[in-house]
């Protein structure tokens, strides 16, 4: 898909990423560095936790989601530059899960003060191999107008 | 600090984490795996980008924030379990930045249906060594009541 400019986005346009499968080792490696809690690090400790089994850090799910968006999810010209957003994790990401990201454009907002740019609001749902949402995220991203 | 239960949280209570300094190599290592875009990977490419210089992925800033919260930011009994939240990145995180996280409890909400638990709403601002906010995040976290 060629790079997309503000003019190429319309409300309701959808994108689907390729897939990423994660395993227990990826979950633990991320957790050791960024979220060193027993339920992300150790199967036995996780069994008796809130998660009832090893679960990925929500921030790991978020990072994988970003990697899928960057590599395959939405080819914004100039890159994916987020201003922020909101996210929830409706259920845990587990070892062996295969994740894809489905995105839908919710709003396209040209900038009033800067004619060369605008923002899009995008809802990206990260689903596992059973179609269950493991992350539901809405972000605002910077998008450039097509150069004249 | 001893582990904290729902009864220990009150609106306005504040927490400050220890510090984490990041360098260009950490920024690039995270980006290679999770956000492989030129402005997170290469100083020269970043110079001519929106960021005018190498910048960390926002998700890297989020992950470092989580690590600071887990290691030193807020000792919730049973761990930090987030249901979701919203975040913005008011300015980029740069190589050499030293980050700390300042958190403040915005709300304490006992569960109506599950007497053993509740939720707290926490605003966590991640600041660099100049006191500038690089991330402003509000999350809802699960907190247990003190066992009787």
Structure description:
Two copies of one chain form a homodimer. In chain A, 24% of the residues lie in helices and 33% in strands. Chain A has 148 residues and is of the alpha+beta class. In chain A, strands 1, 2, 3, 4, 5 and 6 form a six-stranded antiparallel beta sheet that branches. In chain A, strand 4 (98-110) and strand 5 (117-127) form a beta hairpin. Chain A starts with 13 loop residues before the first strand and ends with a strand. The mean pLDDT of chain A is 95. Chains A and B meet through helix 1, helix 4 and strand 3 of A and helix 1, helix 4 and strand 3 of B. Strand 3 (81-88) of chain A pairs antiparallel with strand 3 of chain B.
Write a brief caption for the model.
2 copies of one chain form a homodimer. The first copy, chain A, has 148 residues and is α+β, with helices and mostly antiparallel strands.
């Amino acid at each position: 898909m060629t790079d997309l400019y503000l003019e190429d986005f319309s409300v309701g346009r959808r994108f689907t990423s390729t897939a990423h499968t994660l395993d227990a080792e990826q979950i633990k490696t991320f957790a050791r560095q960024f979220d060193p809690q027993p339920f992300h690090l150790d199967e036995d400790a996780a069994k008796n936790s809130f998660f009832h089994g090893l679960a990925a850090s929500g921030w790991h799910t978020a990072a994988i989601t970003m990697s899928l968006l960057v590599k395959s999810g939405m080819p914004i010209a100039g890159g994916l530059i987020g201003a922020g957003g909101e996210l929830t994790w409706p259920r845990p990401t587990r070892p062996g899960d295969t994740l894809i990201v489905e995105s839908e454009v919710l709003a396209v907002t040209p900038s009033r003060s800067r004619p060369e740019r605008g923002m899009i609001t995008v809802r990206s749902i990260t689903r596992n191999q059973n179609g269950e949402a493991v992350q539901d995220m809405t972000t605002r991203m910077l998008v450039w107008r097509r150069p004249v």
